[in-house]
């Protein structure tokens, strides 16, 4: 009899027996299955349990004594919380899939059948034959008198997967792989299954092998959508890695929702969400850009909000690497052969020594990041080295050298450049394996017997041949700030890119002048200057210059007279100032309207605040430019 029919029958029986006292309404939530719409109710059934008290105590002790390391440390608290307050582990599940529980109910011919709930009549075995032999021995009868019925339940998934570190190598057999590779060194997984999987593996391995299954557990971040929401089919915010790699249109994204077996209402809601997040679909980003983005996001243990636009940004970084390496290889020349072992000759330029110093620091940070499982440290270091130091600065600085006639300087420069390319690609390889392999194959080799592939080439390590020079880095940073000030003025007054300017560097100390003179060619090249004049203390540059303060020890004066039409430029600035003031006033009026805080959504208010801050900054810059132009008139 089915449950609802049985309830009616019970009610009728109560009435017939005169025991029925009445019916009262009982407001409650009735759970239903989202697909079949059946009413879901709990049903008590016999289950199989494992006593994990001693197993849990050993797992706790392993972490406390440092035998098992959990990274990051903050999840030790979760470990202790679960395992110090553990209960018997229910390992049976009423499902149609999984490993069927190897437990058999015994019936002995000629004896009164036992009850399912009576554990006395249950035996276990790896096979039915093994279980029969165990039952025959237990009940003292011949095997032929034993009948078995295997339990229909299956094992909890986490119980089955808890054997993974051992079973994958052939356990319980003492195979060669098992003896060679068990226990393992590192487990990498998500922090959400620290107890469900990691703790179970540790408990089972300690109990069955008396060994920890691994020494370190690294818990990575969980991937969420750009808004921090958990990825869900019903929200339509699931990001398929293949779609990020190959790209996909919005229409195809919408079409994929039909594969999720969702209600029409959920599909409509999901389509609206996709339209907001991906109005133009997902651009093709490639596998290396996605890999680099995920590693960059991986701050230990924290959730990552995956923004596809950031992945696309790393695709542009890949393009930059390709073009920069192509240019660098052209600079090396057709018959270039690097030193068998890189060494300093003592004749390298300051910029050669600087880029080597930055390479040394990048190597140090990458190794520290890998060793400490702080992967964003690695990606940030190598990203900054390639993009901001090698591409934006060193490659630009050496163009006059490569195109010059000093053979010795060219040779030195090429060897430094090759060293940066070779080490830079090897540093980047774990995060971008495909691009770095392709580019590495285009590099000449230092030795004929060098590894044929970057994936078997040693990872760079810090060494004396590539020294770190903090003092030189400080000087170059000073020079970079000067170049930035020159470029800022050029941009502010819209000077043509090819127009060369006269630069006057006014310094408060003679030592600063001497230092800057050693970088005169660098400043001239990077600032596109026709002439650089150094001044100390009371010396004054000629009239007609725009001024930018670099530091308390240096000012940059850029000659504008003759470069721009000052009255015309002033009128343009005045017009720009008026437009900025109107835009700012309009926004300020909007924020002062009644019920602004209650009627305007928080995200809109935030954008308005950002826009006003940006307008105020632009207004200040334009006002300063007008004041400068007035002085030049």
TrEMBL record:
Its EC number is 6.1.1.9. GO terms for molecular function: ATP binding; valine-tRNA ligase activity. GO terms for cellular component: cytosol. It comes from the Eukaryota. One of its GO terms (biological process) is valyl-tRNA aminoacylation. It is an enzyme of class 6 (ligase). Keywords: Aminoacyl-tRNA synthetase, ATP-binding, Ligase, Nucleotide-binding, Protein biosynthesis. Residues 36-307 form the Aminoacyl-tRNA synthetase class Ia domain. Residues 352-504 form the Methionyl/Valyl/Leucyl/Isoleucyl-tRNA synthetase anticodon-binding domain. PANTHER family: VALINE--TRNA LIGASE, VALYL-TRNA SYNTHETASES. Belongs to the class-I aminoacyl-tRNA synthetase family. This is valine--tRNA ligase. It comes from Biomphalaria glabrata. The lineage of its organism: Eukaryota, Metazoa, Spiralia, Lophotrochozoa, Mollusca. The gene is 106071845.
């Amino acid at each position: 009899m089915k449950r609802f029919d049985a309830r009616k029958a019970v009610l009728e029986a109560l009435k017939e027996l005169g025991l029925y006292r009445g019916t009262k309404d009982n407001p409650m939530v009735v759970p239903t299955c989202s697909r079949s719409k059946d009413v879901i109710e709990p049903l008590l059934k016999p289950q199989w349990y494992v006593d994990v008290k001693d197993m849990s105590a050993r797992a706790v002790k392993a972490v406390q004594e440092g035998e098992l390391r959990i990274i990051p440390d903050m999840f030790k608290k979760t470990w202790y919380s679960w395992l110090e307050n553990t209960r018997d582990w229910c390992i049976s599940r009423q499902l149609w899939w999984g490993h069927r529980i190897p437990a058999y109910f015994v019936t002995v011919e000629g004896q009164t059948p036992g009850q399912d709930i009576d554990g006395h009549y249950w035996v276990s075995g790896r096979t039915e034959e093994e279980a029969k032999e165990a039952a025959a021995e237990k009940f003292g009868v011949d095997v032929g008198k034993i009948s078995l019925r295997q339990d229909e339940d299956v094992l909890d998934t986490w119980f089955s997967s808890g054997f993974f570190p051992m079973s994958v190598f052939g356990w319980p057999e003492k195979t060669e792989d098992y003896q060679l590779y068990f226990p393992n060194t590192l487990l990498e997984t998500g922090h959400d299954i620290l107890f469900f999987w990691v703790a179970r593996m540790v408990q089972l391995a300690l109990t069955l092998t008396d060994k920890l299954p691994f020494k370190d557990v690294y818990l990575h971040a969980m991937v969420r959508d750009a808004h921090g929401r958990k990825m869900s089919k019903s929200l339509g915010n699931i990001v398929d890695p293949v779609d990020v790699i190959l790209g996909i249109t919005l229409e195809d994204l919408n079409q994929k929702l039909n594969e999720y077996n969702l209600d029409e209402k959920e599909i409509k809601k999901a389509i609206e969400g996709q339209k907001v997040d991906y109005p133009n679909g997902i651009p093709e980003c490639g596998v290396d850009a996605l890999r680099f983005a995920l590693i960059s996001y991986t701050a230990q243990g924290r959730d990552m909000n995956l923004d596809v636009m950031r992945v696309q940004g790393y695709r542009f970084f890949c393009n930059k690497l390709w073009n920069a390496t192509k240019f660098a290889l052209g600079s090396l020349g057709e018959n270039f052969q690097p030193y068998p072992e890189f060494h300093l000759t003592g004749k390298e330029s300051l910029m050669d020594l600087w880029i080597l110093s930055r390479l040394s620091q990048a190597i140090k940070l990458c190794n520290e990041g890998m060793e400490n499982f702080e992967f964003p440290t690695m990606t940030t270091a190598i990203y900054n080295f390639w993009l901001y130091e090698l591409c934006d600065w060193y490659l630009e600085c050496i163009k006059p050298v490569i195109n010059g006639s000093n053979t010795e300087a060219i040779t030195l420069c090429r060897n430094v450049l090759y060293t940066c390319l070779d080490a830079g690609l090897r540093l980047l390889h774990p995060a971008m394996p495909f691009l770095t392999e392709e580019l590495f194959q285009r590099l000449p080799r230092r030795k004929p017997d060098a590894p044929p592939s970057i994936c078997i080439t040693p990872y760079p390590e810090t060494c004396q041949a590539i020294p770190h020079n903090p003092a030189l880095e400080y000087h170059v940073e000073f020079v970079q700030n000067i170049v930035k000030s020159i470029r800022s003025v050029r941009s502010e007054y819209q000077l043509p890119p090819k127009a060369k300017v006269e630069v006057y560097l006014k310094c408060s100390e003679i030592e600063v002048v001497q230092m800057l003179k050693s970088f005169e060619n660098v400043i001239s090249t990077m600032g596109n200057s026709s002439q650089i004049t150094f001044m100390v203390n009371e010396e004054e540059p000629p009239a007609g210059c725009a001024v930018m303060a670099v530091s308390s020890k240096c000012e940059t004066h850029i000659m504008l007279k003759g470069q721009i039409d000052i009255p015309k430029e002033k009128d343009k600035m005045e017009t720009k100032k008026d437009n900025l003031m109107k835009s700012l006033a309009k926004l300020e009026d909007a924020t002062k309207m009644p019920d602004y805080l209650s009627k305007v959504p928080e995200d809109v208010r935030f954008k308005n605040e950002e826009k006003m801050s940006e307008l105020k900054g632009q207004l200040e810059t334009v006002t300063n430019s007008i004041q400068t132009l007035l002085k030049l008139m």
